[in-house]
Input
Amino acid sequence: MKKTLRYNVIFRPEPEGGFTVIVPSLPGCVTYGRNLTEAKKMAIDAIKGYTASLKKHKEPIPTDEEDFFTSIEVKKTLVHA
Output
């Protein structure tokens, strides 16, 4: 029986098109897709490869089971010299 792991991912639109995908809890786990569907597939593939490498090297596999993302707006203050 396989365990399902949960990861938060960030989809960042790129100026030339497509999306860069970042997995914050897996440092260096970054991929790209030409559209959101492809980006999601690429993210799943990247996460599987990353976690397989951690398992092979007997390192702990972090997850985002308890974490969540939200946005916070911060008003920009102007600094006068």
Remarks:
- The chain has a mean pLDDT of 93.
- The radius of gyration is 16 Å.
- Residues 36-56 form the longest helix (21 residues).
- The longest strand covers residues 10-13.
